[in-house]
Structure formats: structure tokens, C-alpha cells
Amino acid sequence: MKPASSPDGECSAFCPAQAEAQNDYVFVILSVAKKPASAFQKNKSAFPQTEDMDAVDCPAGVITAGGTSARLGLDKASLRMRPGGPDLLVRTATLLKDIIGNVLIVGREHPDFPWIPDDRPNLGPAGGATSALRRCGRACLVLPCDMPFIDAPTLRRLLAARTQRPADSVLTAFSNGAGVVHTALPGIYEPGALPFLQQGLLAGQAALARLIPQNLVHRVTCAPEDALPLFTVNYPADLALALAFIRAQSGRAGAGTRRAAVRTRRAGRAV
User: Fold this and answer.
1) Fold (topology level) of 19-270
2) What are the tens digits of pLDDT across the range 62-81?
3) Among 41, 74, 197, 254, which has the highest number of CB atoms less than 10 A from its own CB?
4) How would DSSP label each residue in 201-224?
5) Which whole number is the average pLDDT over 208-233?
């Protein structure tokens, strides 16, 4: 597919979360892995739902995918967490499009989704978010392509929170409840965020979470036990942990299916 050429093009998400928040997510994976999958599904369903996205000021969906994955040593975007499943980039793009109705990949060509190059390559998530805001000309829900557990309830919760933001807020993002932003991604960046991103990049500061003044961030509380969807794959240890979690959950689901089959067979014999 050729690069998207207008602000009306479809949009999808952006780049990795900040490493200092990862400890919370490791805690979540280790603790959630001890729970049955049904408990986690029940917890996710408690997230509030957004109203029809066609009826509100819907942001563009943006995925930043221009990184080199140097810390991981593998291309994050093409990782498949389950045999036969989609790669992380396709999974993320499909999720965003299902929720928002549009998606734009920044920094990487893709045959199936609209995409644009980074205006200035090698500037990380901040460069990707800046490119997206310039191109889309409206608010952008920016996602990285390295969140294997990101889900619809989490993104809908962020979208719902944005409707309650203060008038001067330029970023809606998750917080740990102590006034600290978990991560700048996923985040909904308003057009008013663009000058801060541009100024920071010109000053040589590419850490996205540090470019927006904290008093202009609308925080959405996300306790550690609810933060599994925000887990990012930055290092080989992160990938190993995510795969181990998926295997553990798949094993429980398989065991549940086998138990149900045994009960069915026994019931059949009883009849």
C-alpha cells in the first residue's frame, strides 16, 4: 500500500512504553499467571465502554512502528505471539481499526494498512507521534506495536476518559494512581501537544513521557493489577515472560476444555 497522503487517511498507533514502568507490568504478569483466565476476563469486562465512536470527536488511530528494535534484537512488529496468529503490528492495527474505524502506521510501509514515513527518522515514539499529529491535523490515539496484551476495554477506557479531560489538557494517559504517568503510550495526543513535542525534539529530548508538562496531562488511574494490557516487549526477558504467560494461560484453557470433554463423555454414558 502506498503512503497515506492526506489527513483524511486512516490512522492507527505508535511506539514502546517507558522502561521504568515495566516493573509494574512484570508484577502483573507474575500475579495474573497464578489466576485462572476467567478471572482476568471478568476483570477486563469491568472497564467502562465508550459511546458510539461515530457520535463523538473521534481521534485518529496511530501506530508508531519505525523503531529498530535494537534492545530486543528482533523485529518487534513482525513477532507472532501465538502459532498461526497475526504479528504484533497487524494485531494492533486491526484492534485500533475495529475500535476507532481508522488506522495509520507511522515509520513503516505496510501492504494492508495506510502508512506514512517518519518526518525525521530515528527519533523514536516522539518522532512518530509528531509526524502523526502533523499529518492527521487532529487528536491522535497513539499506540506502540509492541504491546502483546493491549485490548479493546483498555483503549475504550482511555477514550472515555478523554471526554472528561480539562479544557487545557493535551494528553490523556494512564497513571499509577500516585500522580505518576505509567507511560506516554498508549496516549491520546491533542493538537495542542504538537508544539511541546516539536520543542523537545529540537532540544534533543526524545523521551516522549518527558515532553508534555505534567499539569497538561489528564491521568487515568490504572492500578498495577490492571496493567497487564500495558505490558511492552522491549528486551528478550520481556518476550520470554510474555510467551511464558501465554503458554500458561493456554495450558489452563486446554485443561478446562479437556475436563469439560470428560464430563460430557461421562454424562453421555450416564444417559
Assistant:
1) Spore Coat Polysaccharide Biosynthesis Protein SpsA; Chain A (3.90.550)
2) 999 998 899 999 999 999 99
3) 197
4) HHTT---GGGTS-GGGEEEEE--G
5) 91
Q: Is 261 exposed, middle or buried (0-12, 13-18, 19+ CB in 10 A)?
A: exposed
pTM of the model: 0.77
Tens digits of per-residue pLDDT, 127-167?
999 999 999 999 999 999 999 999 999 999 999 999 999 99
Looking up cell 492500578 gives 223
Q: What is the CA radius of gyration of the chain?
A: 19
181 torsion bin: left (phi>0), alpha (psi -120 to 50), beta (else): beta
Eight-class DSSP state of 181: B
Tell me the C-alpha distance between 113 and 108, whole Å. Answer: 10
CA 77 to CA 6: how far, in whole Å?
A: 24
pLDDT of residue 101 exceeding 60, the answer is: yes
**Is 170 within 8 Å of 192 (Cβ atoms)?**
yes
**Around Cβ 237, how many Cβ atoms within 10 Å?**
12
Domains of the chain, by residue range, sit at 19-270
